[in-house]
Amino acid sequence: MKRWALALATILLGSTALAQKSASDGIAEYREMLADGNPAELFEAKGEDLWKQKRGPKNASLERCDLGKGAGVVKGAFVELPRYFADTNRVQDLESRLLTCMETLQGFDAKEIAQTGFGKGEQKNLEALVAWISSESRGMKLNLPQEHAQEKTMYEVGKRLFFMRGGTHDFACATCHGEDSKRIRLQDLPNLTKNPGAGAGFGAWPAYRVSSGELWGMQRRLNDCYRQQRFPYPGYASDATIALGVYMGVNGKGAVSIAPALKR
Question: Which of 65, 101, 173, 225 is catalytic?
Answer without folding.
Answer: 225
